[in-house]
Structure formats: C-alpha cells, structure tokens
Design goal:
- Belongs to the LECT2/MIM-1 family.
- This protein has strands at residues 32-33, 36-37, 41-44, 50-52, 57-66, 72-79, 84-88, 90-92, 96-99, 104-108, 121-126.
- With 136 residues, the chain is mainly beta.
- The protein has a single domain (21-130), classed as Glucose Permease (Domain IIA).
- It has a 6-stranded antiparallel beta sheet, with no helix packed on it.
- The protein is globular and about 35 Å long.
C-alpha cells in the first residue's frame, strides 16, 4: 500500500501551501538551512490555528528537535500502516491514541516571538526523511 494525498492540515485554509522564502529561509523540501538541507516541508498556518490530522492513524508520542542555534521545536508523531509523519510547531491536544483524518490534533504555536518576520507555519516531516511534497 502507498500513502495517499493528505487533506488540508491547517483549519481555515483551502490548500496546503508551502511557505515561500522569507528573511528566515524557505519552506520547501531540500531548501538550504545553514550548512544543511531542510528535510521537511513548512506549511503556512495561522498562529493558534487548529491543525488537523492529514490521514487516519495513531498518535505515537511527542517529538522534538533542536536547530543548530539551540531553538527547540515540539510536536507529535502520527503513523498508519502506510505512512508516518512528524508535525512540529504545534501544541497537540494529546500524544497517543487513534485519530481520524481531519480530526483536530492541536494548534499552531506562534514563531514570531523568536523569529521576527517569519511566516507562521507548521513543519511536516516524513519519518523516513523522504519528501512529503507529493502528498500535500
């Protein structure tokens, strides 16, 4: 079985729009980030906006990562029989248990306080490091 197209993740939006380039970089997969490449996709969302499950599956616990500057980003892992993603920059309502496609997972955390001029977004990363762009 193969992954299917994801629904719109950010409530109030009509599509999954990749963050364009701003003063802090670009949101596309493999965009340059410091000395490396961005192995995720940034999707434009509204601060404190509801973030929906892109597919049905199970929440598999909290995830976090740090960038080279030491900033920490938190989120949640969602997996199914055919897919696995990590969603960062969100505050999940819960970290474990089943979710249906389109169900509210949590809300977007604002980034403006740490990164003035950045476009508000969530970060969508495939667990295996491959490009999620074909599914958005």
């Amino acid at each position: 079985m193969f992954s299917q197209k994801y629904i719109v993740l950010c409530a109030g939006h009509h599509n999954n729009r990749v963050r364009a380039c701003d003063v802090h970089g670009c949101g596309a997969f493999n965009s340059k980030r410091g000395n490396g490449l961005h192995k995720a996709v940034d999707l434009v969302c509204d601060d404190y906006g509801i973030v929906n499950a892109p597919f049905s599956g199970n929440l598999a616990g909290p995830v976090s990562r740090k960038d080279p500057a030491g900033n920490q980003y938190d989120g949640v892992k969602l997996l199914s029989d055919v897919d696995c993603v990590k969603l960062f920059n969100i505050r999940p309502y819960r970290y474990i248990g089943p979710v249906a496609q389109g169900e509210a997972l949590g809300y977007l955390l604002p980034l403006q306080e740490r990164f003035s001029g950045i476009t508000s977004h969530l970060q969508l990363q495939k667990c295996d490091g491959t490009d999620p762009s074909p599914f958005i």
